[in-house]
Amino acid sequence: MAGAPPAAPPAPAPPGPAPSESDAPARPSPTGPAPARTAPARTGVRATARISAVADGRGGTALPLLAGEGPLALRRTRGTAAEAGVMLVGAMSAPLGGDHLTVEAATGPGARLALASAAATLALPGRGGAPARYDVRLTLAGDSALRWLPEPLVSVRGSDLRVRTRAELAPTARLLLREEQVLGRTGEAPGLLRSRLTVTRDGRPLLDQELACGPGAPGGWDGPAGLAGHRALGQLLVVDPAFAASAPTAAVLGEFAAVTPLAGPAVLVTALAPDALRLREVLDAACRTYGW
What we know:
The chain is mainly beta and 292 residues long. It has one helix and 18 strands. UreD, UreF and UreG form a complex that acts as a GTP-hydrolysis-dependent molecular chaperone, activating the urease apoprotein by helping to assemble the nickel containing metallocenter of UreC. The UreE protein probably delivers the nickel.
């Protein structure tokens, strides 16, 4: 009896891409299975508040852009006839370690904007130990004016915060900027605070300064040549083209405050105080003298 014909050999597989390393079967490890690959966890909150102010053509200021995210909520407040008011409201506790918050404000030609915060900002420690960042970016077009008057920033024990404020001004713009830092709550040691303020006018540097306070800061920050035991420090910067014709003179305000004219139509008032209340009194007096 004749046998069945032999089966035809299988057709060759169509050519294709060579298997990649990730497609290859995992090799057994002599010490056990290889750990699964996981992306690094991203900690902290990223949030940006954006404000745009433009002249409305009727002598006032409109706000075509008013958008906040996460802990940065924005509310329009009652302003003057020419000036629009905006309040920055904290919608949650921030900044914590690992957070990155940004405030961006821009004033168009002829616009007037008053920007403030509703309460003090507390820099708090996070669980991962990463520093927090708080950026402020101000852009002023010609003949515009911006007042940035936030409440104090409190550096809480164990926190690590890096603050960066940048302002870019047209030659005819006016800026009134106040910064207040409080090192620790009542009876509390401060965290690490690094702060830098950079101001340019007509594309040229007007002011660039940096300070660091708290554990980990360069030595001497709390010595006689530094804060000398004070726990509240602040400054008031006023940039006004009118100073070109009548520049303020250097002066001493009280025991721990000084007025420094800058190389441009601007003046810087720096102050130390034992607490936030006394610091505000000194800076308010300076604002009445040099601001608007």
